[in-house]
């Protein structure tokens, strides 16, 4: 097992986390749905995309900065919402918020965080988005969105791939539940902060009880009547839904398969990205999450048209390994790797990263004559 000091890539945090965490918690963070085909494919698909680097470009100065929904950030690598971070480390979302702010990037806070929107805001300045699960009781949603607005959150990431929870078999076997000293802090005052112990995944039972399965495109419009915050639709995988998202007023799209935890046998997000980018026609920004573990992955996503990426498991595993310092290190490693990838591909700024800097299996006919 690598020691923290010896870590040279973000994947290595997982081994340390596995060693440190109780099995029920590690399994909750690590698992995907059912056969976990999409979980493996999220990684494998990146490895099938290759570079077409340009040489002899002066790369003595490289600019990684970008703007997301009008907010300037230090790099196109952001933090995805992952639930219940205090199971990983006592400082949980506080540590993630501080590390993200220190890295100059955006943190997305999960609805199911073990720290409230107000608590996360109290950690100090930082650009933060709030991930929303829509509950059957819409008064809860209205209150929660108000609280996020008041706490200074800048956008809503509306998760649309979870009308029911995917079958994560490890959680079922472990009878997953939240450790008794923790609550879903945003819902504590509503008496919805606890997961019951069941013969199933405690989270699956909670979702079945609280989350609105009837959620549909009309609700995306409804959400705009209760908030002026921009809405990112998180969980789009097709051109068809991209077009409806734009018609429904989305400010951006996150191509996501929920870290392969929902529907198994959906394609890797990097495989779905270009279809979505083409359908979006530059009208709204498209982001990606799922399997991003290397700076080269970030570059590939940008070359295929993403405006930025989000990372999920690397944050929870680095948090488990070393708290705030761990998350800072994970973000720094990805930043350094991405900067190096840009230098070695001949790109000095994000706008210089083009489709021609990568080759995929589906554009083989286009690239082959040049090989
Ligand atoms: C998630 N994800 C997630 N998404 C969401 O919208 N709300 C949530 O509360 C959670 N919680 C959550 C917990 C854990 C442990 C994981 C691993 C994932 C999905 C997350 O936002 C993101 O889509 C994926 O994590 C991205 O894939 P990688 O980076 O984990 O491969």
Topology:
Elements (H helix, E strand, L loop, with lengths): L11 H9 L2 H8 L6 H11 L2 E2 L14 E3 L2 E3 L3 E3 L12 H12 L3 E3 L7 H5 L6 E5 L5 H13 L4 E5 L9 H6 L27 H9 L6 H10 L4 E6 L2 H9 L4 E4 L13 H12 L5 E4 L5 H9 L4 E4 L1 H33 L12 E2 L4 H4 L4
Parallel strand pairs: 4-11, 5-6, 6-7, 7-8, 8-9, 9-10, 10-11
Antiparallel strand pairs: 1-12, 2-3
Bound molecules: ligand FNR.
Ligand FNR binds next to helix 13.
Distinctive features:
binds ligand FNR; alpha/beta; globular; eight-stranded parallel β-sheet; 371 residues; two-stranded antiparallel sheet; 14 helices
Can you walk me through this structure?
This protein has 371 residues and is of the alpha/beta class. It is 40% helix and 12% strand. The chain has helices spanning 12-20, 23-30, 37-47, 92-103, 117-121, 138-150, 169-174, 202-210, 217-226, 239-247, 269-280, 295-303, 313-345, 364-367, and strands at residues 50-51, 66-68, 71-73, 77-79, 107-109, 128-132, 155-159, 231-236, 252-255, 286-289, 308-311, 358-359. The strands form three sheets. The chain has an eight-stranded parallel sheet. Strands 1-12 form a two-stranded antiparallel sheet. Helix 4 runs parallel beside helix 13 (313-345) and helix 10 packs across helix 11 (269-280). Residues 29, 42, 80-83, 110, 112, 131, 159, 234, 256, 258-259, 261, 289-292, 311-313, 316 line the site of ligand FNR.
């Amino acid at each position: 097992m690598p020691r923290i000091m010896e870590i040279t890539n973000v994947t290595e945090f997982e081994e340390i986390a596995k060693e440190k965490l109780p099995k029920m918690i590690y399994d909750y963070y690590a698992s995907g749905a059912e056969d976990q085909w999409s979980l493996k494919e999220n990684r494998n698909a990146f490895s099938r995309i290759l570079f077409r680097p340009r040489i002899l470009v002066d790369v003595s100065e490289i600019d990684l900065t970008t703007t997301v929904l009008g907010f300037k950030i230090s790099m196109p690598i952001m933090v995805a919402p992952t639930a219940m971070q205090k199971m990983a480390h006592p400082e949980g979302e506080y540590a993630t918020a501080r590390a993200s702010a220190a890295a100059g990037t955006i943190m997305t806070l999960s609805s199911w965080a073990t720290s409230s929107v107000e608590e996360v805001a109290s950690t100090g300045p930082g650009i933060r988005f709030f991930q929303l699960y829509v509950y059957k009781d819409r008064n809860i949603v209205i209150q929660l969105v108000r609280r996020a607005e008041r706490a200074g959150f800048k956008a809503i990431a509306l998760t649309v791939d979870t009308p029911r929870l995917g079958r994560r078999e490890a959680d079922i076997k472990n009878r997953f539940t939240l450790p008794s000293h923790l609550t879903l802090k945003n819902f504590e005052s509503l008496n919805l902060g606890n997961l019951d112990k069941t013969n199933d995944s405690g989270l699956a039972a909670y979702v079945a009880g609280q989350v609105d399965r009837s959620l549909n495109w009309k609700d995306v419009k409804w959400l705009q009547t209760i908030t002026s915050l921009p809405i990112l639709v998180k969980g789009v995988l097709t051109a068809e839904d991209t077009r409806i998202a734009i018609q429904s007023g989305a400010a951006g799209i996150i191509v996501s398969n929920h870290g392969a935890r929902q529907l198994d046998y959906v394609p890797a997000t990097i495989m779905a990205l270009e279809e979505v980018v083409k359908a979006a026609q530059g009208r709204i920004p498209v982001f990606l999450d799922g399997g991003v573990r290397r700076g080269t992955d970030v570059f590939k996503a940008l070359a295929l048209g993403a405006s930025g990426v989000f990372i999920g498991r690397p944050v929870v595993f680095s948090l488990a390994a070393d708290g705030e310092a761990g998350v800072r290190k994970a973000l720094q490693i990805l930043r350094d790797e991405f900067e190096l990838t840009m230098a070695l591909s001949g790109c000095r700024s994000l706008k210089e990263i083009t489709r021609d800097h990568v080759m995929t299996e589906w554009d083989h006919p286009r690239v082959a004559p040049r090989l």
